[in-house]
Structures are given as structure tokens and as C-alpha cells.
């Protein structure tokens, strides 16, 4: 009887613990997709208010200087808390890699993107953001940092997804078709296409497309440099803080060389200040923390699965708020990009799974041989 009386509280305690763990697992499972949806909303709002601010004569490099200063201030406390000891390991070589990282990721990638955004529209420019993994994949193959095995289904799906994304981008850029009259008016006023002639609009679209293509190429090179930097200096928060600071300094130099007047650098209580603060805090600081947390739980492919959501939301809100026209060609091209991106990510995810299984099977034998470095080289790639 005494044993049964003692066993009853223990069983109740185990049941409570199992319920608490199941509730915690359920909460985590719900927070993962909600976090990624929130990241896409942050990015969508940033693109839209940036478009409004750029139309209101805000200069891209002035915006980049202040945005990255605020982003560095948002990430710096995390670097001081979690990576304080990493300061001692910074050398001139590391500073060189961080400088290249800032030049590619901020000055070129972001600078060209915002110039393209100013010349085109928010919905049009977001299409090119979804092409960044594809361009990175192509460059990685050219540099032999990525392998394409066409004898397996993952490799075939990656190739098919790449071709579909490229075709979708060409359709969006070159084909319009019928105009879709979804709603009668726009909700926000913007100094955009209303005051420009058709010749100016065509010239702006061509110039903006070239800027956006250059931004995609810069982002792809930036990811490759990021992979190298992560090997020579494995730090997340400190590297991000220093990259933002150096990127702000480099953007300031470029802005001065472009002849920006002193008045253009003065901040006022207007849309420009709102855009700078919002993008620096939410689109860089909060987004970075959420994406890092999700990657630690679900891996590097998971955040990319939500990128098409940004494309759909931005297209709808850009048309509803700013009055940007939606054509049949843009819808068809967008669908091709979304399907191609998912096909590519599926193939990439399967390859990573196969690599992990193969690495787990080979690891015991390699430990016996004392060749752990070779195991690291054979285990997957850092381009995900």
C-alpha cells in the first residue's frame, strides 16, 4: 500500500512534466513559422516605405549610412554579451575579409538594389531578391564550391528550379500582357510614375533592371565571402556589427564622392527618419536574431521557404497602396519563380540530408584513422 501511495505522486509528476514538454514543443513549432512570416512582413514594410522615401528624394547611400549605424547599434549589445572574447582574435586578415564583406553586401548589393528600387517598383524589385539563391548557386558551380550531380533527383530538381527561376525573371522583365484591374485606386500618394513620361518610364525600367541584376550578382558574391569569413572567423554578432560599421563608412565615402550636398545628410522628423530607424532596428536587428534562431532549430533551408510569401505580399500591397499596375506577365513570371525556387530548395534540402547521412556513416571510421579534417571537407558545402 505504501509503495502504491508513493508511486501515485511520481506518476502525476511525470504526467505534468510530459504535458509541459509537449506544450513547449507545440509552442516552438508554432513560433518557427510565425517568426518567418514576421520576418517577411518586416521586409515587405521596409521595401514599401523605402520606395516612398526614395520617391521623396531620399538618396540610397545616405540611407545606407544611417541604416547600418542603427543596425550596428542594435546588434552590438549581443556581440558584447555573447562574443566578448572574439575581439582578441581579430587580425589584419580578418579586417580585410570584413571590409570585403561590407563592400559586397552593403555598398554594392544594397546600394545597387535601392537604386533599382527607386527606378522600378517594389513588386518588381522583390522578384530579384528571390533570384539571389539561384545566382549564388550558378556562381558556386563556376567556382567549384558547389557540385551538381545530374544522376540523382536532387541535382535534377536543382537544375530544373534554376531554369524555371531564370525563365520567370525573363517573363517578368520582358512580357507584360493584359493589365489586371484588381482595385480602383491606391491608398497612398507617391511622386512616382504619375509625373513621368512613357519614355522616362521605359528608360527607368531598363536602368533599374540593370541595377537589380548587379545587386543579385553582388549578393551572390557576398554569400560566398560570408562562407569563407565564417571559416576563418566563426562569429555571428561581432562580424555583423563590424560589417555594418565598415559598410556605413564605405557608403559615406561613396556618397561624398557622388557629390551629395551637406543638406542631404541632415535628418528631419519625416518619412526618411522613419525608414532609417525601422529598417535598421526591425529589418536588420530583429530579423537577424529571428533568422539565426530558426536556422539553429530547422537548418539553413527553412527560412528560404518563406521567401515567395514576401513576393506575393509585396506585389499585392504595392498595387493596393502605391497603385503599381499588375500585368498577366508579372503574375506568370512570379509563379514560375516561386515554383522554381521551391524545386531548387527541395533539391538542396535533399542533398543536405544525404550528406548528413553519409557523414554520420563515415565518421566512426574516419575517427579511427585520425582523419577528422578530411571528414569536414567531405561533409556538405557551406553555400546553403
Put the structure in a nutshell.
The protein is mostly helical. The protein has 13 helices and two strands.
Structural write-up:
One of its GO terms (cellular component) is membrane. Its main location: membrane. Keywords: Membrane, Transmembrane, Transmembrane helix. It is found in: Membrane. The chain crosses the membrane at residues 21-49, 61-82, 94-116, 122-145, 157-175, 205-225, 237-259, 271-294, 301-320, 326-345. With 384 residues, the chain is an all-alpha fold. Helices cover 78% and strands 1% of the residues. It has 13 helices and two strands, in the order H-H-H-H-H-H-E-H-H-H-H-H-E-H-H. It has helices at 2-55, 60-82, 92-119, 122-129, 132-142, 153-174, 198-232, 237-257, 271-298, 301-304, 307-322, 328-369, 372-378, and strands spanning 179-180, 326-327. It has a two-stranded antiparallel sheet with strand order 1-2. The longest helix is centred in the N-terminal third of the chain and has 54 residues, at 2-55. The protein starts with a helix and ends in a 6-residue tail after the last helix. Residues 370-384 have low confidence and may be disordered.
Q: Within the largest sheet, what's the order of strands?
A: 1-2
Order of helices and strands: HHHHHHEHHHHHEHH
Task: Give the amount of beta strand, in percent.
Answer: under 5%
* Global shape: globular
Number of helices: 13
Average of the residue pLDDT scores: 81
Number of strands: 2
Span of the ends, CA to CA? 60 Å
Proportion in helices: over 70%
What is the radius of gyration computed over CA atoms, rounded to a whole number of angstroms? 24 Å
Largest sheet: 2 strands, antiparallel
Low-pLDDT segments: 370-384
Structural class: mainly alpha
